[in-house]
Amino acid sequence: MDLYERLASYVPTVLVVSVVYCASVSFYRIFLHPLAKVPGPWPAATSHLVEFYYDVLRDGQYIAKIKEWHGVYGPILRIGPNEVHCNDPMFIDQIYAGSGSGKKRDKTVRFSNAIGYAGLCTIPHDLHRQRRAVLNKYFSAASIRNIEPFIKERLQKVCYHLDNYYSREGNAANLSDALSCVAIDVVSEFVFGFSYNYSDSPSFLPNINSAIDGSSSLNHLAAFFPWVLKLLNMIPQRIILKISPDLKAMLEYKTKLEHSVDTVRDEASLNAAKKSRMGATIFTEMLQSDLPESEKTKQRFNDEAFALIGAGTETVSTAASIGSYYLLTQPGILDKLLLELEHNIPDPDSIPDWVTLEQLPYLGAVIQESLRLSYGIVTRLERVPHEPLAYHCMFKDKHVDLVIPAGTIIGMSNGVHHHNEDIFPGSYSFIPERWLEENGKRKRELDAQLLSFSKGSRQCIGINLAYAEMHLFIATLFRRFGRRMRLVDTSKSEVTLARDHYLPKRESNTGVRVCIGSA
């Protein structure tokens, strides 16, 4: 018997063993696993193949399927062998426990595989707290006020282009690109101590929108196969360009960030760290901190830069663009905002500071609604509690009483929660009034239901910067151009969620385009 025949003789045995093994594992996970009593479809409980099918093969559609399942199985749902998804607003504080609670919350390998090992993706709770402690002071409200003049300076650049290049020439401006340029200029100054100055260009090019699209399109695949990103770096860029221009843009963007990191590290090593408007940069502070040397490697800094720049650009510019679209398509809402801005800002060329703008209730409501419908991160915001969680609810007139064991992955999704009709009636409509009391003051208790920046001890560290930018973006653009700006060549597909790429992917991706009328 030759080697081929000997190997072939083992095939039936291997097949039988494989079938028995898979059947045994499936039986255990469905009937004997600690999560066996949690409702949900049994195929999802047996393996990650269902998630792979919807998120990889069907390109980010698991979130839509999860939402559908919640209608069938209730607000608590098993979506993986060791993962539970929740759509109950009363359970937010248990899942996303705050730092004052003393409860620890780990992140998951899925997130780190997809995005890297930056602070926001750090798996162990204690390591995340250690990393975050170094950065906290840079993202405090006081620190944000130090960079506020630079935000205004960048916005004035954009306003100048809109007034002189687009208004006088009658050209259509891509507002999404313009806001993206301002956001990356601000966050690069914030992170590196020097700005990329993208908003200097009247065309608002280059920007990083294509790079972010290219990166996010790989997130689900990388979550299952983290070696994919390393493989891409080995392929010549001329071949990548033929595969996808967005992937080429992503690789070029990562190279640019790595060069920026090298610049900061080199300057710090020479004790000549460049001082930004905020003093020492985030990275020079990390280099000079008491963090262990394993936390100061080049790869660690590259991952941090990629996460900080990407998140700091995408979330704010997308929310402001989507808010602008809805304002320009709903004249009644736009008029309310403009009346408030004109009453409180007599001079359109002299925009108040962030703290003052925060006192304007309708502007705040517009910003909250813009954040709600832009979602932030739209994929599952998972946590791994160190203690068991007791869950109780009523579903279809039946009591649901469960104990979620410690070590179980549990989370919520903004794309599901932000459309919970019990909290946000008419959830697919842009209604700023939902954030206001009848007397016109802000309805602060509803703020707890906005998950755009997550919640708890792992809430987005850049939340203060994001709110400062959002207030300044909307107030500046609409106080100056609100009665002169109109949409062109922009449909609702630009703001409609189509799929989950961790970041929300819209049906169309050309941007919100506007024309500026003459003064």
Automatic annotation (TrEMBL):
Q: Which cofactor does it need?
A: heme
Keyword Oxidoreductase (UniProt): yes
SUPFAM superfamilies noted in UniProt: Cytochrome P450
Species for this entry: Trematosphaeria pertusa
The superkingdom of the source organism is Eukaryota
**Record has Oxidoreductase as a keyword:** yes
GO MF annotation terms:
heme binding; iron ion binding; monooxygenase activity; oxidoreductase activity, acting on paired donors, with incorporation or reduction of molecular oxygen
Q: What is the phylogenetic placement of the source species in the record? A: Eukaryota, Fungi, Dikarya, Ascomycota, Pezizomycotina
Q: For binding heme, which residues are annotated in this chain's numbering?
A: C460
Query: Do you know which Pfam families this protein is assigned to?
Result: p450 (PF00067)
Family according to the record: Belongs to the cytochrome P450 family.
Q: What's this protein's name?
A: Cytochrome P450
The transmembrane segments are 7-31
Q: Which UniProt keywords apply?
A: Heme, Iron, Membrane, Metal-binding, Monooxygenase, Oxidoreductase, Transmembrane, Transmembrane helix
